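Pilot study result, target chain (295 residues):
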Amino acid sequence: MPNNPIILNGKLVSQSVREGLIERINVLKSKGIIPGLTVILVGEDPASQSYVRSKERQSAILGFKSEVIRLDASTTQQELLKKVEDLNQDDSIHGILVQLPLPKHIDDQLIIESINPAKDVDGFHPMSVGRLVLGLDGFVSCTPAGILEIMKYYQIPTEGKHVVIVGRSNIVGKPMANLLIQKRELGNATVTLVHTRTPDMSIHTKQADILIAAAGVPEFITADMVKEGAVVIDVGINRVDDPSSEKGYKLVGDVDFESVAPKSSAITPVPGGVGLMTVAMLLSNTVKSAENSIK
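Predicted structure:
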C-alpha cells in the first residue's frame, strides 16, 4: 500500500526564514546598518548564473545592499584575490561569497581562505568549519543549515535517529554529519556517511530513518535503497536532457522521486525543496554577520 508522503516544501520554509529576518533587518536599519552582500561570479557556468540571479532577487526583496561582481572566465587568480581583499576592507559589506566552481586555473581553497572569516557567509572558511566541528557558534554552510530548517519547520525529530548521508563533500556531506551529531536540538543523531568508495551502499541506506542524498548523480537513490517510512532529503539539482521541455532539459534530484516517494513518510521535491533553502540561509548568515559587526 503506497504512502502519501508529506512533501517537504522548501518554498514555504524559505519564506518563513525570510519573514523571520525582516524584524532583525529593521533593527539593523534603525542603527544605520544595511546588510551588505557581495557575490563574485567568475565565468559563465549556467547553474551558477541561475543560482546567483536567485540570490540577487531575494537580497533585493529584503532590502539588502546587494551587488554581483561578474568577472570574465580569463580573470587571473591574483585579480580575484585583489577583489576579495578590497571587499574584506569594505565595512559596508557583511557577506562575501565567491560562487563555486571557479575556472580550473584558480585554486578554490586559496580563494575561500582569503575571505575574512567574519564575512564568510557561505561557511566554507577553515575557521567556520572548525567552529562547526567543535560545536561553537559561527557560520554554518547554507545547504546543511537549510536542511535543519526544513526538519525544524516540519518537526522531524533527529534525536536517536539513524541518519545516512550519501556524499562526503565539504559543502554538504561533512558539515551535515557534524551538525547532526552535536548535542543540540536537531542533533543527537547516529550518523553514517557513505560515498563512492563504500561497497554495497544500499546495506547502509536501507537502515536510514532519515536519508540525505547529496551524491551529485541524477536519480541515484532508487526505491530498493530506501527503508519503508524513511524521511528522504534530496540535495541534488541535476540538469538532464528532456526534448519535450521548452528548455531542452529538466531538473531532477539525486533521488528517483517517482519510485521513492511512495515508500517515504516525508520527502523533498526537486525543484522546490532544499535548493530554495540554500539561498534563504545565505541571507540569514548575512544578517547575522551584520549583527556581529555592531557587537
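One observation from the pilot: The chain has a mean pLDDT of 95. A full batch analysis is planned for the follow-on phase.
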